[in-house]
Recover the amino acids of this structure.
């Protein structure tokens, strides 16, 4: 994996974290996730 891809992947991870952390608990519940799931979702390792 080259450095440009790593930087792009990290930017996507950070953006996903930011967007999900901006949601309140009700919105997360509507999506079927909890605050504890956010990092796994952002990493792409979340398993429902």
């Amino acid at each position: 994996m080259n450095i440009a891809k790593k930087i792009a992947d990290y930017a996507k991870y950070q953006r996903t974290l930011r967007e999900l952390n901006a949601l309140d608990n009700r919105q997360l519940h509507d999506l079927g996730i909890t605050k504890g799931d956010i990092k796994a979702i952002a990493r792409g390792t979340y398993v429902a």
